[in-house]
Amino acid sequence: MTSPDPLSPPTRVRYGVLAFACVLSMVTYLDRVSIGIVAGNIESEFGLTNSQMGVLFGAFVLAYSLFEVPSGWLGDVFGPKRTLIRIVLWWSFFTALTGLIRPFSVDLGPFVFTGFAALLVVRFLFGAGEAGAYPNISRSFHNWFPFGERGSAQGAVWMAGRFGGGITPLVVGSLIFFVQLPDGSIVEHWRHIFWILGGLGATWCAGFWWWFRDRPDQPSAGTMPSESSRKAPSPLWRPVGTSGRRPGSPTSAALASPSLMITHLPGTPPRLQRAAAHPTPTSPGAGC
Fold it and tell me: For residue 214, how far is the Cα from the chain centroid?
């Protein structure tokens, strides 16, 4: 395969890449914030305390922080397409699984496995999956956007994510419905929301798999214009896997940006504290 001309102007295909990234950013916030909207339902059905709900929210943040760098490293090694599809399917599965868990208690001898423990495990694994979204979006922007446009593209993605989080109460609230039982009692149904959100992620994966390519020099797919295979978006563009050396380890990547890590660290404990103390839809920490 011939390498693209680094002096060729970028194509409009990059705007399709941006659209997919913005939609994914919205999906990440819809998925992560939705549990905060139905926190009251989970509390009452599982008999949880505010502190236990805070632990559920904290499990997501802990996994998110632990797997952020390794997930980005996977994108450097295998490319953003393969990595994003796998991790979006991963977290969509655990999003849907959240709606299937019901209160239970199983005596396993040394300990008792409960519905709360199952939610905790699912929430942790969900966070591990979502951790790879933004690092791999950045990896795809490196391949498709000129250096001078990457900041604007990243800004659009973050804006879409915050917009998705902002509309989550409206989306979730519109999907909740009530059923009156023969005895006159009212039952509030919320579990299907997680199934719908899980299906939304799977749908995104199908479209992304059909349309997207890691690099402009790869054969076109779907509606992607064929000229994209002949033009590179930036003089600084470099395809994944052609640098002549293997990507660094996740540890070395983390140590390479200590200033960024330090700037993000102070904001996490207060957010977890608010989530643990007031895990309600109106809480800034609800859903983390």
Answer: 19
CA dist., res. 32 & res. 286, Å (int) = 9
AA letter at 115? G
> How many residues would you count in the chain?
288
The tokens 């305390």 sit on which residue? Answer: 49
The residue extents of the domains of the chain are 13-277
**Contact in structure between 49 and 116 (CB atoms under 8 Å):** no
Q: Which residues are registered as beta bridge partners of 255?
A: none
The pTM for the full model equals: 0.77
| CA 64 – CA 45 distance, rounded (Å) | 26
CATH of domain 13-277: 1.20.1250.20
> pLDDT, tens digit, for every residue of 49-103?
999 999 999 999 999 999 999 999 999 999 999 999 999 999 999 999 999 999 9
Predicted confidence (pLDDT) per residue in 185-216, tens digit: 888 899 999 999 999 999 999 999 999 988 88
Other Cβ atoms less than 10 A from the Cβ of 99: the count is 18
